[in-house]
Structures are given as structure tokens and as C-alpha cells.
Amino acid sequence: MRTLIRNGRVITAVDDYHADVLIEGETITTIGSSLSMETDRTIDAAGCYVIPGGIDPHTHMELPFGGTFSSDSFETGTIAAAHGGTTSIIDFAVQGHGEALNLAIDKWHAKAEGKTAIDYGFHLICTDLPDSRLPEMKSAISQGISSFKLFMAYPGVFLVDDGTIFRAMTTAAEAGGLICMHAENGVIIDVLVKQAIAAGRTAPKYHAMTRPTKAEAEGAGRAIAIAEMAGAPVYIVHLSCHDALKKVVEARDNGIPAYAETCPQYLFLDDTLYDREGFEGAKWVMTPPLRNLENQEHLWRGLKFNDLQVVSTDHCPFCMKEQKELGLNDFSKIPNGGPGVEHRMSLVYNGGVVPGKINVNRFVEIVSTAPAKIFGLFPKKGTVAVGSDADIVIFDPNAEQTISAKTHHMRVDYSAYEGMKVRGVAKTVLSRGKVIIENGKYVGKAGDGRFLKRGLFNSPR
Ligand code: URP
Ligand code: ZN
Ligand code: ZN
User: Fold this and answer.
1) How many domains does the chain contain in total?
2) Beta bridge partners of 54
3) For the segment 422-455, what is each residue's pLDDT rounded down to a tens digit?
């Protein structure tokens, strides 16, 4: 199958030029001007950008959490991702206490295999790492699962102590892997949560009030200090605030290989949403919580100057009905997380490129190229180049859409961005050469997505 994408503006993290792109089978084989050859399909990309498919390195499909499961399956969640121009996700397999790492990996393979619309990889959340299990981390890396998430929060569920973090970082670094940190002082947060509930402060807004920015900053600072002692790189996930960003900036200024991602919810939403009437604030009960507006300009500055390398979504949807409602009388029982995998590219383009906060190359870098490099997928993924997988988005920078639960494709009964109008829409999406989104419609086949056996950690720049 030969497909020619004609007349588009090819944009990568470093390039910006008009060219035609020839795809043969699953791969980009030629990029040139005015290409003319026999093809099976021609796509006219006039007026549009031709960019690499988005890579969302932080999703939770079917995640067991708070007595329920996140509401998107690998099928529904990846179809929604495709609609928004994301062609690869990296989801989190979870090790149960006392469980072998391979068992967790097998369980997540069983959930995803044959179900996804786009390619997918796994990180591994480790909850229990005695010395005897450390070699299993190296085995995971050799299976293409080269990054691990550790939690400083949720005592009794996910939290691991500093010694475990140190040993895991040392082990991962020896084998070229990367530790992703959920950086929050969960022990102090636990005290604040218990105090709030005991005092009858049970509404959703107290979720945010019991998770102060200083708790996130303390976690980030501690994670970085442990990484420095272990001689390991560290990647802070879902960084939400200026206080935590300052720790990353300081580390990077001192030459420490600290990296971080933020998410659209922290760039576009703020904590006034928790003041909505009744239980509505539960829509934004996620961890870290939304912060006050002032933080946003600092996060954009971090993205612009590369103190933040990636925008992921932390897509972890729970329906208001029957799921978020589990915490109707107690915010600590609201399952943490929100939907987002579908609209990341449009939100970041609209909020970043349109107002001139970042340029188009940086846009491509933070939604695709940098995650590909950090998580061992580059240059197969994350760029438009000869030899790369033909994961391509024909992105219309002038088309507009209004985000709404009525029209989105995620399996969740609300939108975190209801009514927001955004400019910049994924018009046509190709996954390894196959068109899967055409004029806004899904035309692919769930099950065509492949497991990504990822390589080792690579510094993005
Ligand atoms: O609220 C969130 N973020 N839920 C998903 C789990 C996590 O910490 O990433
Ligand atoms: Zn987390
Ligand atoms: Zn997460």
C-alpha cells in the first residue's frame, strides 16, 4: 500500500517546510517536493500541518482505583486518543503487593492485546520491591518496559519509602531505565485529609485544600535528591505548580538529569472550579489537584524554556454517576483522576501556539518528540522522517471545535473542558500508514494497535 500526502507543511521538532510525504506499507520512505508516482491513495494536506502522531506517555485505561476502574477500556480510550491525533500511548501496569512484576505485565498485556486502535506501551507501577525483586526490573526493561512509576503518596496503597526509591533508581539506572515519580508528601497529606474529614470538611474542594503545593514541591525536591544520590535520571509526572517546578529548575541548573511533564488540566483549569455548586467539583478531583491561576504562567514558561519537557494527560476518567459519587459524603473516597486523552493536542495548540506562548516546533516537541526520546521510541516514533513509522497527523491549524461530553469519544459522562472552544484540529490521522481518522470519523479497526517494545531512556536534549 502506497500513500502520498501532498501539499502539506511538514513540521517536526526542528523542521518547517512544504513537502510531499510518501508512505510505503507502515513506513515513511520519501519526503520531497512535487513527488509524482503511482500510489494507492493520495491525501491532499493543503493548508494543513503534517506532524508526527502524538505520544501520550501517561494514561490509565481500566485502572483499578478507589474501589472501581477508570472508565475507558483500551479500546474506547485509544479510539478517543486517535480522534485527537494521538497515535501512541504509554499506560501504567500496576504491581499488586507481593506480586511478581511479570504477573502485572501479563495482566496488562491481557487487557490491551488485540483491543487498541493505536500503538501502546507500558510503564510499570511498583508497589513492593524487596531486594529479591530488583532483578525483575531489569527483566521488565529487556521486555521493552523501560520505565517505572513510584509513588510518594497514597500510604497503604501505592506509597513506597525513600530506601525503596533509592534502590529502584539505582537498579533502573544500571540497566538504562527511568524512574517516574509521583512526587507528593503523602504522609503529611494523609494527616491533613484525616483532620479535614474529622472536622466535617467533606466536600470535593477539600481534596485540593489537603494537597498543598508545598507537599508536591517537597516530593519533587526529595525525588531529585534521591536521584542525585543514586546517580540516576528522574522524571516527575503530572507536575502542577510553580513550587514544584522551582525544584526541577534548580536541579537542571545544577546539571542534574531531572525531567518533568505537566498536563493540560494544570495549564488550562484552576482551583476556582472546586467552588462549583453541590458535588460538581468532583469532576476535577485528581492528584495533584488544580492549582490557583498564577501557576499557569510559570508552567508555560517551563515548557517554553525546556524545564518541562512533555505535556501528557494523566487520562484517568471516572464517571460522575456511580464512580465519582462514591465520595458524595467524603471527598477522600472520590476516585482520583479525570479524562483528557482526546483533546491534548488541540488544547496545547490552541493555548500554546495560537497566543504565541510556544512555537509550532516546540508544540510538536512537547506532545510527540520529547516523549518519544525519553521513553525509548525515537526515531521510530516522534518525528516525520524517512524510515520512521508513518504515524502522521494532518492537523488543520484553522479548524475549530467546541469540546463537549456530547461529542467526545471518551467513555465518561462529562468533559473537564465543557464548552471550551479550541482552534487546531486533527483532521486525518494515520497509524503506521493506515488512515484511522478521516474527516473527524474513526475508520480504523480496534485491534490494529501494537505493543511497543521500548528502548532505553534517552535524554531529550
Ligand atoms: O488523579 C490521578 N492522577 N489519578 C491517576 C493516578 C496517578 O496518580 O497518576
Ligand atoms: Zn500519579
Ligand atoms: Zn497518572
Assistant:
1) 2
2) 86
3) 999 999 999 999 999 999 999 999 999 999 999 9
Ligand 1 mean position to 288 CA, how many Å? 8
CATH of the domain at 13: 2.30.40.10
Tell me the DSSP string of 237-268: -S---HHHHHHHHHHHHTT--EEEEE-HHHHH
Name the closest-CA residue to atom 4, ligand 1.
337
301-323 residue pLDDT tens: 999 999 999 999 999 999 999 99
pLDDT for 461 equals 78
Answering whether pTM is above 0.90, one says yes
Nearest CA to ligand 1 atom 8: 287
Same domain flag for 174 and 269: yes
Mutate to test the pocket of ligand 1, among 154, 312, 336 (most ligand atoms within 8 A of CB): 336
Residue 90: pLDDT band with limits 50, 70, 90 = very high
| Contact call for residues 318 and 412 (beta carbons, < 8 A) | yes
**Nearest ligand (C-alpha, residue 211):** 1
Pocket of ligand 1 (CB under 6 A): 60, 182, 238, 286-287, 314, 316, 336-337
User: Considering the domain boundaries, does residue 238 fall inside one?
Assistant: yes
* Ligand 3 mean position, distance from CA 58 (Å): 6
Distance of CA 396 to the CA centre of its chain: 22
Alpha carbon of 65 to ligand 1 centroid (Å): 9
Chain segment 334-350, per-residue pLDDT in tens: 999 999 999 999 999 99
Helices (H), 6-142: 74-83, 101-112, 134-142
